[in-house]
Each structure stands twice: as structure tokens, then as C-alpha cells.
């Protein structure tokens, strides 16, 4: 498979982008869906922001380096990756906080309705944020298995909150169909794009979506704890009332008024002072994704994961695939169920193949298209085949659970 992999790498239109990332020697990185790799340009850009803009410019840089405009500028660069207009996206806070703000804002727009509908097994923070608002008496959480979501959209549902690409299985929801069904029932829709943005095409405006959020540190390669993003369709801007009414979301923060008045547009989703260092790193990652283009990223992602499956087949590996077999129906990952998934994952990591484990029994491998090569994929499949055949995962050291998996 190695020869075939090398031929595919040679023919890959994205082959030169791998060199734009700093990847450690001897590592095959299949966890860009949890923490994206480091773009080579990031360190230089950070040095410039730290030494030049912060060290030299000091407070002046809010104006001279346009720090104050960074949430909008960076958000605007995310927009084309998710089918939004630049003035509909802002980079700020964490995905969790953005969920809170937008769920609460959506509930305010839906008098007489309190139900926030989602699926059990959605990413925990999404479910916890609904529960937090429920504890405040503002929401009522309703969880329905994914195949029954459309049928559960009744007149009580204020908001449908779904993760577009499921973090564990990689299964993709039909955004257009579910958004339409929600609207027909009078509900609004909030999409969590954490595992979509920078990996597969998303057309928020084409689908008529209302709101969206997503992480900056996965396929956007913004670095650990990078700022997240929030999207609100332009038609909702005027009515949008989010509860974290900090001064940076004020219409005139530097008027220092005692009374809150929301800024126009998505600017009102801001809360406190933007994290400039984090935004600067995120901007580098986004520029790289935008340069490659989402269609090319998605095509490579599908090709990589399909190639991995072919390699496993040819190596005679039989694993229980929990991701959809059709690459069009999944994000940029393959997840396999195995009772010893944790130990297998650790054994792979010991061989330099970094994937991750999701409780209780999922081995999850992400194929970040910007920097994973076909050779990586062939070698990872070979390692996995060997780990399974030799039973080396049974070693005691591979059973010890780390705090972060
Ligand atoms: C679907 C989804 N939503 C949200 C998050 C995380 O949000 P936060 O960055 O606030 O921890 C993740 C990953 O951690 C995720 O996979
Ligand atoms: N933020 C993290 C911090 C530490 C370890 C993992 C994460 C993840 O992002 C996990 C990811 N959301 C997942 O889909 O599992």
C-alpha cells in the first residue's frame, strides 16, 4: 500500500500544504479533530504581535494594529468556510460560552416556547448549556434520538440545537432538511460546527440556518483554547438579545455609559476584551484553510478516510465501523468500536500514531486534510493491523487512564 500511497501523495493537489505545518518527526497525527496542528507561520506571527504590537505598540495597538477589530476581522475570514457573509460571523469566547449566549438569545425570540430540542449523546457541553439555562428556569431540555428529531418538532420547540458532525461517530446531519423542518414547526436552529468548520463544506445561508457556533482549535488550527466563533443570520441581528451584556458588545464601549445598549449586528455577541494573542494565532490557521479552500479540503478528507478503509481491508483487519460507510455522510473522521479501544489507542500512540479514544469503546481517527498524507494513512493502517495482530495493546502500561483522553 505504501507505493500506492506515495503515488497518491505525488498526485495530491494539496501535497505542498503539509510543509506549511510544524509536525514532529516520527508522528502520524490523526487527532486534528481535537487539536489541530501548528501552522509554521503561527510562531512568527505571534512573535510579531507579542514583541511589536504588544511590546512596542502597547495600548496604542488597539488602534494602530486594529486589535479592537480583530473579532470581526477573524470572524469574517471564517465566514466563507461555513457559507456565511463576513458580517454574520464573529470570533470570540469559547464554543461553550457562545452556545450559552445564542441559546438564550434564541429563547428570547420565541415567546411562549421553552423547549430546546437536541439528541442524547450530543457533545456534552451543548447538553450542559441547555441544562444550565433550564436550571435558571429559561429553557426546557428535550432529548430525542437523531432519527426521531424531525418528528419531535412540535409547537413547544423554541430551538433545535444539533452538532452538524457528531464528535464520536462523525455522522452528519442533513442541515438543509432539518433547518427546513424546524422552521416549518416555528422553531429556530443552532448548529454546532465544531467538527465541520475547515473539514467539510457548510452552507449556513443556503440552508437558511439561524445560528451557529464552532471551535477554532480543531480543523481551523487556531491552537489550544483558540477563540471560538458565533454566527447569527443577518435577519436576526436586530432582535438578537444575548444575556452576557458585557461592555465590548455595547454600541459605544468607550462612551462608558451606565446603561447597556447593544452594538449593531454580530458585534453584540461580544462580551469582554478580546484575547488578542489567541485571535492572532487563529487568524493564521484560518487564512491557511481559506487559501486551500473548503472544497479541496473536503475532497482530500474523503479520499484519506476511504484510503484508510481500503488499507485496513487489504491488511485483513475487521473492525466495527461506527461512522457512516458513505464518505458523504460523515465528517473527516473514522470511528471504530472495540471493547479495548482505550488500550489500542495507547498502543498506537506508543508507535507514534496519535488518534484518540472516546468513552466507553470508541477509537477515533481524524484525517485533517490540510496536513495528513496518504503515506501517513497507509502507515497508520499498518500500525493498527500490527497492534491488533500482535495483541500488544494487552500490555499493562496501555490500560492506565490519563486525565485527558
Ligand atoms: C461539538 C463540540 N462542541 C463544543 C466543543 C467544546 O467547546 P469548548 O471549546 O467550549 O470546550 C467540542 C470539543 O471540545 C465539540 O466537539
Ligand atoms: N477541547 C479539548 C481539550 C482537551 C482535550 C480535548 C478537547 C476537545 O476539543 C475534544 C473534542 N471536542 C472532541 O470532539 O472530543
From TrEMBL:
Q: Which Pfam families match?
A: KYNU_C (PF22580)
Annotated pyridoxal 5'-phosphate binding lies at 95-96, 123-126, 163, 192, 195, 217, 247, 273
Q: PTM N6-(pyridoxal phosphate)lysine: at which residues?
A: 218
What family does this belong to?
Belongs to the kynureninase family.
Q: How does the record describe its quaternary structure?
A: Homodimer.
PANTHER family documented for this protein: KYNURENINASE (PTHR14084:SF0)
Official protein name in the record:
Kynureninase
- Name the lineage: Bacteria, Pseudomonadati, Pseudomonadota, Alphaproteobacteria, Sphingomonadales
Amino acid at each position: 500500500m505504501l507505493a500506492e500511497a506515495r503515488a497518491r501523495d505525488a498526485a495530491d493537489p494539496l501535497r505542498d500544504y503539509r510543509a506549511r505545518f510544524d509536525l514532529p518527526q516520527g508522528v502520524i497525527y490523526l487527532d486534528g479533530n481535537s487539536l489541530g496542528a501548528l501552522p509554521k507561520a503561527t510562531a512568527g506571527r505571534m512573535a510579531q504581535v507579542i514583541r511589536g504590537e504588544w511590546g512596542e505598540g502597547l495600548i496604542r495597538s488597539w488602534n494602530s494594529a486594529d486589535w479592537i477589530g480583530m473579532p470581526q476581522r477573524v470572524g469574517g475570514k471564517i465566514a466563507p468556510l461555513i457559507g456565511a457573509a463576513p458580517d454574520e460571523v464573529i470570533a470570540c469566547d469559547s464554543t461553550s460560552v457562545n452556545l450559552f449566549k445564542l441559546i438564550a438569545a434564541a429563547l428570547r425570540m420565541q415567546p411562549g416556547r421553552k423547549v430546546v430540542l437536541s439528541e442524547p449523546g450530543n457533545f456534552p457541553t451543548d447538553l450542559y448549556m441547555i441544562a444550565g439555562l433550564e436550571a435558571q428556569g429559561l429553557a426546557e431540555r428535550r432529548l430525542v434520538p437523531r432519527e426521531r428529531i424531525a418528528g419531535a418538532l412540535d409547537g413547544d420547540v423554541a430551538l433545535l440545537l444539533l452538532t452538524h458532525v457528531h464528535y464520536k461517530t462523525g455522522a452528519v446531519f442533513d442541515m438543509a432538511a432539518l433547518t427546513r423542518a424546524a422552521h416549518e414547526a416555528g422553531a429556530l436552529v443552532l448548529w454546532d460546527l465544531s467538527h465541520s468548520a475547515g473539514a467539510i463544506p457548510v452552507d449556513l445561508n443556503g440552508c437558511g440556518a439561524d445560528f451557529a457556533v464552532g471551535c477554532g482549535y480543531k480543523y481551523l488550527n487556531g491552537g489550544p483554547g483558540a477563540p471560538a466563533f458565533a454566527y447569527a443570520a443577518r435577519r436576526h441581528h436586530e432582535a438578537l438579545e444575548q444575556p452576557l451584556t458585557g461592555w465590548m458588545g455595547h454600541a459605544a464601549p468607550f462612551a462608558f455609559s451606565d446603561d447597556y445598549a447593544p452594538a449593531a449586528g454580530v458585534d453584540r455577541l461580544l462580551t469582554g476584551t478580546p484575547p488578542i494573542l489567541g485571535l492572532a494565532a487563529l487568524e493564521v490557521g484560518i487564512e491557511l484553510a481559506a487559501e486551500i479552500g473548503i472544497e479541496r479540503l473536503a475532497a482530500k478528507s474523503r479520499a484519506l478516510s476511504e484510503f484508510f478503509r481500503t488499507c485496513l481491508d487489504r491488511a485483513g483487519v475487521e473492525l466495527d465501523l461506527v461512522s457512516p460507510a458513505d464518505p458523504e455522510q460523515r465528517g473527516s473522521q473514522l470511528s471504530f468500536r472495540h471493547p479495548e479501544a482505550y488500550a489500542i489507542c495507547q498502543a498506537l500512540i506508543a508507535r507514534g500514531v496519535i488518534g484518540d479514544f472516546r468513552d466507553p469503546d470508541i477509537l477515533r481517527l481524524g484525517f485533517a486534510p490540510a496536513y495528513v498524507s496518504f503515506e501517513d494513512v497507509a502507515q497508520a493502517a499498518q500500525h493498527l493491523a500490527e497492534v491488533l495482530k500482535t495483541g500488544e495493546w494487552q500490555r499493562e502500561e496501555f490500560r492506565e487512564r490519563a486525565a485527558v483522553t
